[in-house]
Amino acid sequence: MSSSTGTTSILQYTPIDEIPKIREHLKATYNSGRLRPLEYRKQQLLRLIHLVEDNYARFEEPFKADLGRHTLEVTAGELNGIVMELMYLHDNFETWAQPQKPGFNLKFWAFGPVIKRVSKGVVLVVGPFNFPLLLTLSFLGAAIATGNACVIKMSELTPNVSAALTELLPKYLDQDLFRIVNGGIPETTAVLQLQWDHIVFTGSPSVARIVAAAAAKHLTPTTLELGGQCPVFCDPKMDMYLTARRLLWSKSLNAGQTCTVVNHIFVPYEAQDALAKAFVQVYNEFFPEGPEKAPISTLATDAAFKRIKELLEKTKGEVVCGGHELFGPILPIVPVKDFQDAIDWTNSHSHPLAVYAFTDDPNFKEYVFNNTHSGQFVVNDTNIQATIPTLPFGGVGESGYGMVKGQYIFDTLSHLRATCESPRFLDMIMGWRFPPYTDAKIKQAAALKPRVPPLNPGWGSTLRGWMPF
Questions:
Q1: Does residue 85 carry a catalytic annotation?
Q2: Active-site residue (options: 85, 225, 321, 398)
Q3: Which of 12, 89, 304, 438 has its CA 20 to 30 A from that of 336?
Q4: Which stretches make up the Aldehyde dehydrogenase domain (predicted)?
Protein backbone atom coordinates (compact mmCIF):
# COMPACT_ATOMS: atom_id res chain seq x y z
CA MET A 1 0.00 0.00 0.00
CA SER A 2 1.21 3.49 -0.79
CA SER A 3 -0.10 6.58 0.94
CA SER A 4 -0.74 9.56 -1.32
CA THR A 5 1.09 12.83 -0.95
CA GLY A 6 -2.22 14.66 -0.53
CA THR A 7 -5.03 14.15 1.95
CA THR A 8 -7.84 13.08 -0.35
CA SER A 9 -7.10 9.39 -1.03
CA ILE A 10 -4.95 6.42 -0.20
CA LEU A 11 -3.88 4.49 -3.26
CA GLN A 12 -3.92 0.74 -2.80
CA TYR A 13 -1.26 -1.03 -4.83
CA THR A 14 -2.36 -4.16 -6.67
CA PRO A 15 -0.89 -7.34 -5.12
CA ILE A 16 1.76 -8.62 -7.50
CA ASP A 17 0.44 -12.18 -7.43
CA GLU A 18 -2.98 -10.88 -8.54
CA ILE A 19 -1.69 -9.25 -11.71
CA PRO A 20 -1.35 -12.45 -13.82
CA LYS A 21 -4.80 -13.56 -12.61
CA ILE A 22 -6.32 -10.27 -13.78
CA ARG A 23 -4.79 -10.71 -17.19
CA GLU A 24 -5.95 -14.34 -17.47
CA HIS A 25 -9.50 -13.44 -16.41
CA LEU A 26 -9.74 -10.68 -18.99
CA LYS A 27 -8.34 -12.99 -21.66
CA ALA A 28 -10.98 -15.61 -20.87
CA THR A 29 -13.78 -13.07 -21.09
CA TYR A 30 -12.37 -11.69 -24.33
CA ASN A 31 -12.27 -15.18 -25.81
CA SER A 32 -15.94 -15.64 -24.91
CA GLY A 33 -16.82 -13.01 -27.52
CA ARG A 34 -18.67 -10.70 -25.13
CA LEU A 35 -17.11 -7.60 -26.66
CA ARG A 36 -17.54 -8.69 -30.27
CA PRO A 37 -20.94 -6.99 -30.88
CA LEU A 38 -20.54 -3.34 -31.86
CA GLU A 39 -23.57 -2.42 -29.80
CA TYR A 40 -21.97 -3.72 -26.60
CA ARG A 41 -18.80 -1.77 -27.36
CA LYS A 42 -20.87 1.36 -27.91
CA GLN A 43 -22.66 0.84 -24.61
CA GLN A 44 -19.38 0.45 -22.72
CA LEU A 45 -17.87 3.45 -24.49
CA LEU A 46 -20.84 5.61 -23.53
CA ARG A 47 -20.55 4.45 -19.94
CA LEU A 48 -16.88 5.50 -19.96
CA ILE A 49 -17.91 8.92 -21.23
CA HIS A 50 -20.40 9.20 -18.38
CA LEU A 51 -17.70 8.23 -15.89
CA VAL A 52 -16.04 11.52 -16.78
CA GLU A 53 -19.19 13.52 -17.42
CA ASP A 54 -20.69 12.63 -14.03
CA ASN A 55 -17.55 13.28 -12.00
CA TYR A 56 -16.07 16.64 -12.96
CA ALA A 57 -16.26 17.82 -9.35
CA ARG A 58 -14.98 14.49 -8.04
CA PHE A 59 -11.73 14.82 -9.99
CA GLU A 60 -11.02 18.45 -9.14
CA GLU A 61 -9.45 17.85 -5.72
CA PRO A 62 -7.26 14.87 -6.76
CA PHE A 63 -5.73 16.93 -9.57
CA LYS A 64 -5.08 19.78 -7.17
CA ALA A 65 -3.47 17.44 -4.64
CA ASP A 66 -1.25 15.64 -7.16
CA LEU A 67 -0.33 18.36 -9.65
CA GLY A 68 -1.54 21.64 -8.20
CA ARG A 69 -3.80 22.01 -11.22
CA HIS A 70 -6.12 25.02 -11.46
CA THR A 71 -9.78 24.16 -12.05
CA LEU A 72 -9.65 25.68 -15.55
CA GLU A 73 -6.78 23.39 -16.56
CA VAL A 74 -8.50 20.35 -15.06
CA THR A 75 -11.73 21.12 -16.86
CA ALA A 76 -10.48 22.40 -20.23
CA GLY A 77 -7.13 20.66 -20.47
CA GLU A 78 -8.09 17.22 -19.17
CA LEU A 79 -11.77 16.38 -18.67
CA ASN A 80 -13.23 18.24 -21.66
CA GLY A 81 -10.52 16.72 -23.81
CA ILE A 82 -11.46 13.20 -22.71
CA VAL A 83 -15.13 13.73 -23.50
CA MET A 84 -14.24 15.16 -26.92
CA GLU A 85 -11.91 12.23 -27.73
CA LEU A 86 -14.36 9.59 -26.57
CA MET A 87 -17.38 11.15 -28.27
CA TYR A 88 -15.47 11.25 -31.55
CA LEU A 89 -14.80 7.52 -31.17
CA HIS A 90 -18.41 6.90 -30.11
CA ASP A 91 -19.83 8.66 -33.15
CA ASN A 92 -17.49 7.12 -35.73
CA PHE A 93 -16.07 3.74 -34.73
CA GLU A 94 -18.97 1.71 -36.18
CA THR A 95 -18.20 3.17 -39.61
CA TRP A 96 -14.48 2.46 -39.23
CA ALA A 97 -15.22 -1.12 -38.17
CA GLN A 98 -17.00 -1.99 -41.41
CA PRO A 99 -15.24 -4.34 -43.88
CA GLN A 100 -13.23 -2.44 -46.46
CA LYS A 101 -12.61 -3.44 -50.06
CA PRO A 102 -9.07 -2.76 -51.28
CA GLY A 103 -8.37 -1.11 -54.63
CA PHE A 104 -9.64 -2.97 -57.68
CA ASN A 105 -7.19 -5.33 -59.38
CA LEU A 106 -8.41 -7.01 -62.55
CA LYS A 107 -6.21 -10.07 -62.07
CA PHE A 108 -7.51 -10.83 -58.58
CA TRP A 109 -11.06 -9.43 -58.47
CA ALA A 110 -12.52 -12.95 -58.50
CA PHE A 111 -11.11 -13.62 -55.03
CA GLY A 112 -13.33 -10.89 -53.56
CA PRO A 113 -10.55 -9.47 -51.34
CA VAL A 114 -11.79 -7.70 -48.20
CA ILE A 115 -10.02 -6.15 -45.19
CA LYS A 116 -11.70 -6.70 -41.85
CA ARG A 117 -10.61 -4.77 -38.76
CA VAL A 118 -10.69 -7.19 -35.87
CA SER A 119 -9.62 -6.90 -32.25
CA LYS A 120 -6.20 -8.05 -31.07
CA GLY A 121 -6.99 -9.43 -27.61
CA VAL A 122 -5.95 -7.88 -24.29
CA VAL A 123 -4.30 -4.46 -24.52
CA LEU A 124 -2.04 -2.94 -21.86
CA VAL A 125 -2.07 0.84 -21.42
CA VAL A 126 0.76 2.25 -19.29
CA GLY A 127 -0.39 5.74 -18.44
CA PRO A 128 1.65 8.88 -17.70
CA PHE A 129 1.56 11.27 -14.74
CA ASN A 130 1.28 14.50 -16.71
CA PHE A 131 -2.17 13.83 -18.18
CA PRO A 132 -3.20 10.81 -16.10
CA LEU A 133 -6.83 10.73 -17.21
CA LEU A 134 -6.77 12.29 -20.68
CA LEU A 135 -4.34 9.82 -22.19
CA THR A 136 -5.22 6.65 -20.28
CA LEU A 137 -8.97 7.00 -20.78
CA SER A 138 -8.57 8.00 -24.43
CA PHE A 139 -6.58 4.82 -25.05
CA LEU A 140 -9.02 2.78 -22.98
CA GLY A 141 -11.85 4.16 -25.12
CA ALA A 142 -9.97 3.14 -28.25
CA ALA A 143 -9.50 -0.36 -26.84
CA ILE A 144 -13.23 -0.60 -26.20
CA ALA A 145 -14.12 0.66 -29.68
CA THR A 146 -11.81 -1.89 -31.31
CA GLY A 147 -13.21 -4.74 -29.22
CA ASN A 148 -10.16 -5.34 -27.03
CA ALA A 149 -10.09 -6.08 -23.33
CA CYS A 150 -7.79 -3.67 -21.52
CA VAL A 151 -5.64 -3.30 -18.41
CA ILE A 152 -4.64 0.20 -17.38
CA LYS A 153 -1.45 0.66 -15.36
CA MET A 154 -1.98 4.03 -13.68
CA SER A 155 0.91 6.28 -12.70
CA GLU A 156 1.96 6.03 -9.05
CA LEU A 157 3.12 9.67 -9.29
CA THR A 158 -0.50 10.85 -9.28
CA PRO A 159 -1.88 8.71 -6.42
CA ASN A 160 -5.01 10.76 -5.79
CA VAL A 161 -6.12 10.76 -9.41
CA SER A 162 -5.30 7.06 -9.70
CA ALA A 163 -7.24 6.26 -6.53
CA ALA A 164 -10.27 8.22 -7.74
CA LEU A 165 -10.34 6.42 -11.09
CA THR A 166 -9.79 3.04 -9.40
CA GLU A 167 -12.84 3.72 -7.24
CA LEU A 168 -15.04 4.87 -10.12
CA LEU A 169 -14.17 2.49 -12.97
CA PRO A 170 -15.95 -0.59 -11.54
CA LYS A 171 -19.15 1.44 -11.18
CA TYR A 172 -19.26 2.14 -14.93
CA LEU A 173 -17.40 -0.54 -16.91
CA ASP A 174 -17.48 -4.31 -17.27
CA GLN A 175 -14.83 -5.53 -14.80
CA ASP A 176 -14.50 -8.79 -16.68
CA LEU A 177 -13.01 -6.84 -19.57
CA PHE A 178 -11.52 -3.61 -18.21
CA ARG A 179 -9.35 -3.33 -15.10
CA ILE A 180 -6.83 -1.05 -13.39
CA VAL A 181 -3.48 -2.09 -11.94
CA ASN A 182 -1.78 0.26 -9.49
CA GLY A 183 1.75 0.25 -8.17
CA GLY A 184 5.34 1.33 -8.59
CA ILE A 185 8.34 -0.26 -10.23
CA PRO A 186 7.76 -3.83 -8.88
CA GLU A 187 4.16 -3.87 -10.05
CA THR A 188 5.06 -2.36 -13.42
CA THR A 189 7.81 -4.94 -13.84
CA ALA A 190 5.32 -7.72 -13.09
CA VAL A 191 2.89 -6.33 -15.65
CA LEU A 192 5.55 -6.12 -18.36
CA GLN A 193 6.63 -9.71 -17.81
CA LEU A 194 3.25 -10.91 -19.07
CA GLN A 195 2.17 -11.46 -22.66
CA TRP A 196 -0.10 -8.75 -24.09
CA ASP A 197 -1.57 -8.33 -27.53
CA HIS A 198 -0.60 -4.64 -27.78
CA ILE A 199 1.07 -2.20 -25.40
CA VAL A 200 0.51 1.56 -25.42
CA PHE A 201 3.06 3.47 -23.35
CA THR A 202 3.30 7.21 -22.71
CA GLY A 203 6.39 8.54 -20.97
CA SER A 204 10.13 9.03 -21.31
CA PRO A 205 12.44 7.43 -23.89
CA SER A 206 14.46 5.75 -21.10
CA VAL A 207 11.44 3.90 -19.73
CA ALA A 208 10.16 3.28 -23.27
CA ARG A 209 13.29 1.21 -23.95
CA ILE A 210 12.42 -0.99 -20.98
CA VAL A 211 8.84 -1.37 -22.20
CA ALA A 212 9.93 -2.16 -25.76
CA ALA A 213 12.50 -4.72 -24.58
CA ALA A 214 9.91 -6.47 -22.42
CA ALA A 215 7.40 -6.47 -25.28
CA ALA A 216 9.99 -7.90 -27.67
CA LYS A 217 10.24 -11.07 -25.57
CA HIS A 218 6.63 -11.85 -26.54
CA LEU A 219 6.78 -10.20 -29.99
CA THR A 220 4.14 -7.78 -28.75
CA PRO A 221 3.46 -4.71 -30.92
CA THR A 222 3.90 -1.43 -29.11
CA THR A 223 2.88 2.18 -29.50
CA LEU A 224 5.26 4.59 -27.77
CA GLU A 225 4.17 8.16 -27.14
CA LEU A 226 7.27 10.01 -25.91
CA GLY A 227 8.58 13.55 -25.95
CA GLY A 228 11.51 15.36 -27.49
CA GLN A 229 13.32 18.64 -27.80
CA CYS A 230 10.38 20.40 -29.57
CA PRO A 231 12.16 23.54 -30.83
CA VAL A 232 10.65 26.81 -32.02
CA PHE A 233 12.07 28.60 -35.06
CA CYS A 234 11.06 32.23 -34.65
CA ASP A 235 11.08 34.49 -37.71
CA PRO A 236 12.49 37.91 -36.66
CA LYS A 237 9.70 39.57 -38.67
CA MET A 238 7.02 37.79 -36.66
CA ASP A 239 4.65 39.55 -34.23
CA MET A 240 6.65 39.06 -31.02
CA TYR A 241 3.73 39.78 -28.68
CA LEU A 242 1.61 37.05 -30.28
CA THR A 243 4.57 34.69 -30.21
CA ALA A 244 5.33 35.33 -26.53
CA ARG A 245 1.67 35.09 -25.53
CA ARG A 246 1.15 31.69 -27.10
CA LEU A 247 4.49 30.30 -26.00
CA LEU A 248 4.18 31.43 -22.38
CA TRP A 249 0.70 29.90 -22.18
CA SER A 250 2.08 26.65 -23.55
CA LYS A 251 5.02 26.58 -21.15
CA SER A 252 2.85 27.43 -18.15
CA LEU A 253 0.29 24.72 -18.91
CA ASN A 254 0.74 21.89 -16.42
CA ALA A 255 4.05 23.49 -15.38
CA GLY A 256 5.57 22.59 -18.72
CA GLN A 257 4.94 18.88 -18.16
CA THR A 258 3.56 18.24 -21.63
CA CYS A 259 5.09 16.00 -24.30
CA THR A 260 4.57 18.63 -27.00
CA VAL A 261 5.83 21.54 -24.93
CA VAL A 262 8.44 23.88 -26.38
CA ASN A 263 11.95 23.14 -25.18
CA HIS A 264 13.77 26.19 -26.58
CA ILE A 265 13.36 29.05 -29.07
CA PHE A 266 15.78 29.77 -31.90
CA VAL A 267 15.72 33.43 -32.90
CA PRO A 268 18.27 35.67 -34.69
CA TYR A 269 20.48 37.80 -32.45
CA GLU A 270 18.90 41.00 -33.67
CA ALA A 271 15.43 39.90 -32.53
CA GLN A 272 16.12 38.30 -29.15
CA ASP A 273 15.70 41.53 -27.15
CA ALA A 274 12.35 42.25 -28.77
CA LEU A 275 11.18 38.71 -27.99
CA ALA A 276 12.42 38.91 -24.39
CA LYS A 277 10.65 42.26 -23.94
CA ALA A 278 7.43 40.72 -25.26
CA PHE A 279 7.75 37.85 -22.77
CA VAL A 280 8.08 40.31 -19.88
CA GLN A 281 4.96 42.14 -21.03
CA VAL A 282 2.94 38.95 -21.39
CA TYR A 283 4.24 37.53 -18.11
CA ASN A 284 3.04 40.61 -16.23
CA GLU A 285 -0.35 40.34 -17.93
CA PHE A 286 -0.70 36.63 -17.12
CA PHE A 287 0.51 36.87 -13.53
CA PRO A 288 -0.12 40.42 -12.23
CA GLU A 289 0.20 39.30 -8.59
CA GLY A 290 3.61 37.75 -9.12
CA PRO A 291 4.82 34.16 -9.34
CA GLU A 292 3.85 33.22 -5.77
CA LYS A 293 0.15 33.60 -6.62
CA ALA A 294 0.38 32.43 -10.22
CA PRO A 295 -2.07 29.58 -11.01
CA ILE A 296 0.71 27.29 -12.23
CA SER A 297 0.76 23.58 -11.54
CA THR A 298 3.49 21.93 -9.49
CA LEU A 299 6.00 19.36 -10.67
CA ALA A 300 4.99 15.79 -9.90
CA THR A 301 8.11 14.83 -7.92
CA ASP A 302 10.81 16.43 -5.81
CA ALA A 303 13.41 14.96 -8.16
CA ALA A 304 11.87 16.78 -11.12
CA PHE A 305 11.87 20.04 -9.18
CA LYS A 306 15.52 19.58 -8.19
CA ARG A 307 16.52 18.85 -11.80
CA ILE A 308 14.77 21.97 -13.12
CA LYS A 309 16.15 24.13 -10.31
CA GLU A 310 19.71 22.99 -11.05
CA LEU A 311 19.27 23.73 -14.74
CA LEU A 312 18.19 27.25 -13.92
CA GLU A 313 21.07 27.79 -11.51
CA LYS A 314 23.65 26.58 -14.05
CA THR A 315 22.44 28.73 -16.94
CA LYS A 316 24.72 31.47 -18.22
CA GLY A 317 21.75 33.38 -19.54
CA GLU A 318 19.70 36.11 -17.92
CA VAL A 319 16.33 35.38 -16.29
CA VAL A 320 14.16 38.12 -17.78
CA CYS A 321 10.94 37.26 -15.89
CA GLY A 322 9.82 34.83 -13.20
CA GLY A 323 12.46 32.67 -11.62
CA HIS A 324 10.81 32.60 -8.21
CA GLU A 325 9.98 28.92 -7.96
CA LEU A 326 7.78 28.56 -11.01
CA PHE A 327 8.14 24.77 -10.58
CA GLY A 328 9.44 23.96 -14.01
CA PRO A 329 8.29 26.11 -16.91
CA ILE A 330 11.68 27.36 -18.07
CA LEU A 331 11.90 28.54 -21.66
CA PRO A 332 15.39 29.26 -23.03
CA ILE A 333 15.78 31.76 -25.86
CA VAL A 334 18.72 30.69 -28.03
CA PRO A 335 20.06 33.42 -30.33
CA VAL A 336 21.57 32.26 -33.61
CA LYS A 337 23.48 33.96 -36.41
CA ASP A 338 21.89 31.78 -39.06
CA PHE A 339 18.86 29.50 -38.98
CA GLN A 340 20.87 26.85 -40.77
CA ASP A 341 22.93 26.55 -37.57
CA ALA A 342 19.70 25.91 -35.66
CA ILE A 343 18.56 23.38 -38.26
CA ASP A 344 21.91 21.57 -38.11
CA TRP A 345 21.84 21.45 -34.31
CA THR A 346 18.28 20.14 -34.29
CA ASN A 347 19.03 17.44 -36.84
CA SER A 348 22.12 16.32 -34.95
CA HIS A 349 19.99 15.48 -31.93
CA SER A 350 17.03 13.17 -31.42
CA HIS A 351 14.01 13.86 -33.59
CA PRO A 352 11.44 15.97 -31.74
CA LEU A 353 7.80 15.12 -31.27
CA ALA A 354 6.94 18.54 -32.69
CA VAL A 355 8.71 21.33 -34.55
CA TYR A 356 7.19 24.80 -34.32
CA ALA A 357 7.64 27.75 -36.65
CA PHE A 358 6.40 31.22 -35.77
CA THR A 359 6.19 33.16 -39.01
CA ASP A 360 3.87 34.60 -41.63
CA ASP A 361 6.38 33.94 -44.39
CA PRO A 362 5.42 30.89 -46.51
CA ASN A 363 9.03 30.44 -47.61
CA PHE A 364 10.19 30.31 -43.99
CA LYS A 365 7.53 27.69 -43.21
CA GLU A 366 8.66 25.51 -46.09
CA TYR A 367 12.31 25.95 -45.19
CA VAL A 368 11.79 24.71 -41.61
CA PHE A 369 9.41 21.93 -42.66
CA ASN A 370 11.64 20.58 -45.43
CA ASN A 371 14.83 20.62 -43.39
CA THR A 372 13.70 19.05 -40.10
CA HIS A 373 12.16 15.74 -39.00
CA SER A 374 9.45 15.50 -36.34
CA GLY A 375 6.20 13.86 -35.44
CA GLN A 376 4.25 17.06 -36.11
CA PHE A 377 4.91 20.46 -37.63
CA VAL A 378 2.89 23.41 -36.33
CA VAL A 379 2.89 27.06 -37.37
CA ASN A 380 2.16 29.94 -34.98
CA ASP A 381 0.93 27.88 -32.03
CA THR A 382 1.96 25.00 -29.78
CA ASN A 383 0.27 22.00 -28.16
CA ILE A 384 -2.90 22.68 -30.13
CA GLN A 385 -2.20 19.88 -32.61
CA ALA A 386 -2.80 17.31 -29.87
CA THR A 387 -6.47 18.31 -29.64
CA ILE A 388 -7.41 17.75 -33.30
CA PRO A 389 -9.02 14.28 -33.56
CA THR A 390 -8.70 14.05 -37.35
CA LEU A 391 -4.90 14.44 -37.35
CA PRO A 392 -2.53 11.56 -36.55
CA PHE A 393 -0.51 12.09 -33.41
CA GLY A 394 2.80 10.33 -32.91
CA GLY A 395 6.53 10.68 -32.90
CA VAL A 396 9.51 9.62 -34.96
CA GLY A 397 12.75 8.12 -33.68
CA GLU A 398 13.40 9.11 -30.05
CA SER A 399 10.00 10.79 -29.79
CA GLY A 400 8.19 7.49 -30.26
CA TYR A 401 6.38 5.47 -32.90
CA GLY A 402 2.83 4.51 -33.73
CA MET A 403 -0.09 6.83 -34.44
CA VAL A 404 -2.94 7.73 -32.11
CA LYS A 405 -6.05 9.98 -32.19
CA GLY A 406 -9.36 9.16 -33.80
CA GLN A 407 -9.29 6.63 -36.59
CA TYR A 408 -5.49 6.34 -36.29
CA ILE A 409 -5.66 4.84 -32.79
CA PHE A 410 -8.60 2.70 -33.95
CA ASP A 411 -6.41 1.27 -36.72
CA THR A 412 -3.44 0.95 -34.34
CA LEU A 413 -5.39 -1.24 -31.92
CA SER A 414 -7.06 -3.23 -34.70
CA HIS A 415 -5.64 -6.10 -36.67
CA LEU A 416 -6.25 -5.56 -40.38
CA ARG A 417 -7.21 -9.11 -41.24
CA ALA A 418 -7.00 -9.83 -44.97
CA THR A 419 -9.73 -12.13 -46.29
CA CYS A 420 -10.54 -13.57 -49.69
CA GLU A 421 -12.51 -16.47 -51.14
CA SER A 422 -11.42 -18.50 -54.14
CA PRO A 423 -14.33 -19.26 -56.54
CA ARG A 424 -14.77 -22.68 -58.15
CA PHE A 425 -14.38 -21.30 -61.67
CA LEU A 426 -10.87 -20.05 -60.85
CA ASP A 427 -9.29 -23.34 -61.94
CA MET A 428 -10.45 -22.60 -65.47
CA ILE A 429 -8.34 -19.45 -65.42
CA MET A 430 -5.42 -20.50 -63.20
CA GLY A 431 -5.22 -24.21 -64.01
CA TRP A 432 -1.60 -23.67 -65.03
CA ARG A 433 -0.55 -23.68 -61.36
CA PHE A 434 -1.19 -27.40 -60.98
CA PRO A 435 1.29 -30.14 -62.02
CA PRO A 436 2.38 -31.49 -64.34
CA TYR A 437 4.34 -28.37 -65.31
CA THR A 438 4.75 -27.70 -69.03
CA ASP A 439 6.19 -25.01 -71.29
CA ALA A 440 2.64 -23.94 -72.15
CA LYS A 441 1.83 -23.42 -68.47
CA ILE A 442 5.00 -21.39 -68.00
CA LYS A 443 3.83 -19.05 -70.77
CA GLN A 444 0.38 -18.79 -69.14
CA ALA A 445 1.97 -17.87 -65.79
CA ALA A 446 4.17 -15.25 -67.47
CA ALA A 447 1.06 -13.58 -68.91
CA LEU A 448 0.09 -12.49 -65.37
CA LYS A 449 3.28 -10.50 -64.90
CA PRO A 450 2.75 -6.76 -65.31
CA ARG A 451 4.62 -4.89 -68.02
CA VAL A 452 7.77 -3.19 -66.68
CA PRO A 453 8.67 0.11 -68.41
CA PRO A 454 12.24 0.54 -69.70
CA LEU A 455 14.81 2.50 -67.72
CA ASN A 456 15.53 6.07 -68.68
CA PRO A 457 19.03 5.94 -70.20
CA GLY A 458 20.18 8.91 -68.15
CA TRP A 459 18.74 9.25 -64.65
CA GLY A 460 19.69 6.57 -62.18
CA SER A 461 22.53 5.21 -64.33
CA THR A 462 25.49 3.77 -62.49
CA LEU A 463 27.90 4.39 -65.40
CA ARG A 464 31.13 6.01 -64.24
CA GLY A 465 31.57 9.62 -65.12
CA TRP A 466 27.88 10.14 -65.87
CA MET A 467 26.31 13.29 -64.45
CA PRO A 468 22.72 14.53 -64.90
CA PHE A 469 23.90 18.01 -65.87
A1: no
A2: 225
A3: 304
A4: 27-323, 324-416
